[in-house]
## 1
Amino acid sequence: MIPIPDSHPRAESLRVRERLVECLRNGIVVEQGLIAHGRGEAFDYLLGERTTVYAREAIRASVALLLLAKHPVISVNGNVACLCAKDVVKLASLTDAKIEVNLFYRSYEREKAIEMLLKEEGAEMVYGVGERASMSIPELMSERRRVDKDGIYSADVVLVPLEDGDRTEALVRMGKKVIAVDLNPLSRTARSATITIVDNITRAMPLMVEAAKELKGEPRDKLDGMVRSFSNAMNLERSLAVIRGLDREDAETGLDSMDR
Ligand code: ATP
Ligand code: MG
């Protein structure tokens, strides 16, 4: 691996790339995952590689939704496992969510490799591996339609970082609330999810863990208010305005949208 100097303007982004390549070699990530990440990087560049105030609002609303859920599930694919397995485990434990492996390019070896990584990070039970993924999401053709009866199939809220549009739409049609993390505010995923966090998962997941610690003790009606007052369409418009340079919001101001 080539050492990356801290002074390099894209240092963090390059480290993430190196990590993904390492995960490709050990069978967690597939080639297509690298390309999908590259598309994400382009949007991140335009956002300024930082978490906007709008992403922060979406993160808080998402955590409130997870805390209110009866059967929350966090869906994990190769890139998610590679980039934030530890935070997935922490967030699942703070919100009493199940963790399910769900792959577009499914193979038993890869499912097992991802399960093992999650267990190394402290997960006790990982759903969706092997025979467990025996139920189908209606109308979906890819291998991603296969879900665990006790996991995504019976969930009321599903966190699907890096989801594709088809499956987000299918999950919503099944009556589930879907939380997506997607750097592209124009994607079908972003448009059809209940809440979309327009941020890099490498930044969003640690912030979700912090928000879960903070909001865990809050009364249900307060959490409910946070979810109700969130508009996904409006949040996406604002994220897009940041990308287009029309909104010079400063991620460090900590202002919420009501103040501007
Ligand atoms: P859709 O099917 O929703 O219309 P798509 O076909 O563009 O979208 P995919 O190719 O399925 O989407 O997935 C790639 C997308 O995942 C990228 O466009 C990017 O927005 C998102 N993405 C990739 N890596 C990250 C990351 N690290 N953090 C957040 N989002 C990411
Ligand atoms: Mg897609």
## 2
Amino acid sequence: MTFLHGIAASNGIAIAKAYRLVEPDLSFEKKTIEEPTTEVERFRKALMQSNTELEGIRDRAKVDLGADKAAIFEAHLLVLNDPELTGPIEDKIKSENVNAEAALKETADMFVLMFEQMDNEYMRERAADIRDVTKRVLSHLLDVEIVNPSMIAEEVIIVAEDLTPSDTAGLNRQFVKGFTTNIGGRTSHSAIMARSLEIPAVVGTKTATEEIHNGDLVIVDGLKGEVHINPTPELVEQYRKISKEFEAQKAEWAKLVNEKTVSADGHHVELAANIGTPNDLKGVIANGGEAVGLYRTEFLYMGREQLPTEEEQFEAYKAVLEGMEGKPVVVRTLDIGGDKELPYLELPKEMNPFLGFRAIRLCLEEQGIFRTQLRALLRASIYGNLKIMFPMIATLDEFRDAKAILEEEKQKLLSEGQKVADKIELGIMVEIPSTAILADQFAKEVDFFSIGTNDLIQYTMAADRMNQRVSYLYQPYSPSILRLVKMVIDAAHAEGKWAGMCGEMAGDEIAIPVLLGLGLDEFSMSATSILKARSLIRKLNKADMEKLTQKVLNMQTTSQVIEAVKNATN
Ligand code: PEP
Ligand code: MG
């Protein structure tokens, strides 16, 4: 039995066989061959095997993920069966007497290069399809398995170096019981996705992929951040009990689903949910969310081959607004960059992606992308209570520029005869220290703030949120962070505006009492944290939390704050 320690990223216990998601080794040597005809046959066999495999994946994807996700595999099938690609490969085998692997790779690389250099965006995207298909055919030639999580058909725990947000979004909840990764932190987006999918997860174990083999029995303890490999039957039994207790606790919280979030002394706060797709709404409603406090729209742009159209976006935003039946929905405009990539945008690699060309910086530059999103949002605004916020605002000029573009699009729509809601609140994420420090000035111009502590903490502490070696610096209760949060809330209130928080800190048991004391108006978190937070807030006295807050703001260290909160709330 082996034990790994990591970061508890998503609550719950999962016990199942390991399924390793690792990059296959597709290396080979270029060889001269004697029998080109046999080699061509070998190549054709690999093509056929790839074809059968792709058809299976496409059919499964259609059922499990919908026709738009399945379209990716349809495109792969087209490439695979294109004589313009396969013909030159066969010719090369015959004319140069080289093995199929080398003929395939060299020909495909040439096409990839050619497509990548084309002006037409659609053609450039075909380069990615050719790369994927080449990988698949190579894997059959070399007899190496390439794993595809959407093909999983038994209960498993995924073991990976890292999972991208789109890998996570594609996981089939029916079979994927949990996951564990070598890298990542509590606020990496794969962890955030795991919470909204309610998949127990432990990230940042450093060595999961080295220690765990396919088929090993694994326990993922997402409550404590532990992973047990090939546990004893006694330990499995113990964990089954813990899992039952956790489920019983959840059933207790579930009784609060239709209750208001009111402190013991009668102060109401709003408990909202963070969502990534319209599908997450079910969880928001099941967990008694009073609003959507953060709709991370970038997930609409991921796991696909090109930008979503205005119409696709309009449908998604409308679905969320209608689904919330008039309750507030705060939609954040595109926040791409950092750990969220869009391969089809082909942005150059950066030394420091979290400090780079991302979010509003990209939108103000690539205005076509931004304007399409704003138009879709404005058109959807008549279907509910829409509020729009801009991510990663560092200066007032950025906010003013973004607001002016929004206003221009609104006027254009109105002149086209389209309907737009009269009043749409416009806010910003406060996730950059400069903005928190200047919050009093921002508060004069914005309608609300939403504090994004995942980034605010990484930027204040200068500690990459993806790097588990510096994860000890993710310190939401540090007096430094608490003071910044206070500045933002006070600045909003001084101008009669509201302040919310949509970073993971908003759902944190130790932070909640302090945030209540600081006067935070809206707490937005993973839907699965809402009922637990409601149960906690209903037991707290706001007046007492204000006194506690006064004390902790003047403390020196995080551990002092934790102790003070525990003493005040037990
Ligand atoms: C944040 O930074 O706190 C936030 C909510 O945004 P994201 O996690 O998507 O960067
Ligand atoms: Mg952020």
